[in-house]
């Protein structure tokens, strides 16, 4: 069955089956630019950001720190900066990207379970807004580095509220336990913080997962954090900011990957019962705002409410555009690899479309593969496709989150990234890697790699003569 376009895709279908994404013909672009490449829409990004902020407009002082690890392309970060967003970084790479994009230190929070001393020094010296602590050793390290600089450093404490997401398997929930301090065993870190004279605990932080489909899970998370903040206040520790993390769902990431293997899945798909359709962000905002106001009244405290969205802002802003290269039996090989779309989450599946053939019947079943010599380089098994020929364009949607930042170079240099500006201009914001870029960090017996290539070329020429 042909995959459906959603309203958030910002797409239309032309009379001849063209696929028009944010005003541009993706089939035409596949012919005009070397494929594969990513195309990010500024219009969709701005609309997502405005929609997210509108969902929480009733919360006074509400702060948003965009999750930079989701997508740190220059066009994305500069757009978010212009819209007044803060940023959540997870290391020195994120920090450098944000500084280049123009974010001020007070707009930055630093998360992550294993921050290096050098990264902590940079954050402290810059005077960023907050460092969220993940271990007692990290707290002691921050205290020592701050003392060496004669400073008091504001920190948050990451808490695991042990809120279970019913969409997750037990395995995923187990992995999540490595982050933060369990709510029922966190007293010791606050006792230690009280002895660390060069840190000041001002925040509580928790992240309950990804693609969260129930606003009530955030309500429960918020209630747990507020109860802890009220308890800490009795011990003269005032929490100024409560951060409920990210995990808000991308509207067009709907199908559970494992659900395609269920008996009767095709029938369920035809009657729209296979989708896990997320609530609108406004529904999350209303539930969280109500819980926030109730908690403020109940506990007689009013910390700033903060959050860290990522996927919900950028997932549908980007498509990967490629072309069919080889057709062999039921296998359709494309130039798009899992190098380009590496995320393999059980709750999502790739949404693949064929520009120029959108009005044709997709009744043939095929396996879509990437071009690399890797057994697992398969985009989709047993999926409906139109009649295809080598050279036909292909587009994969919802690739704005965790695709570019996790892109690999297995036997292929990484792809270019283009930014579709609001006025229709298309700009390159990440140039395509070439083989020499991939090999540039290698050391060849202490000599310059280019010199080795020249020597090899001379030797080959001599043999030919």
> How much strand content do the residues show?
15-25%
Any idea what the CATH architecture is? Alpha-Beta Barrel
Unreliable residue stretches: none
Question: What do we call the CATH topology?
Answer: TIM Barrel
Classify the helix fraction into a percent range: 25-40%
Overall 3D shape: globular
Number of domains: 1
Number of DSSP E strands: 21
Structure description:
It is a single chain. α2 (42-55) packs across α3 and α2 (42-55) runs parallel beside α11 (281-299). Strands 4, 14, 15, 16, 17, 18, 19, 20 and 21 form a nine-stranded mixed β-sheet that branches. Strands 5-6-7-8-9-11-12-13 form an eight-stranded parallel β-barrel, surrounded by five helices. The protein has helices at residues 26-32, 42-55, 74-82, 92-101, 117-126, 136-149, 170-176, 187-195, 215-234, 265-270, 281-299, 311-314, 435-439, 449-464; strands at 11-13, 19-21, 24-25, 37-41, 63-67, 86-89, 108-110, 130-133, 153-160, 181-182, 199-205, 241-243, 304-307, 318-328, 331-334, 351-353, 364-369, 378-385, 393-397, 416-420, 426-430. It is built from 14 helices and 21 strands. The protein has one domain (1-433): TIM Barrel. β17 (364-369) and β18 (378-385) form a beta hairpin.
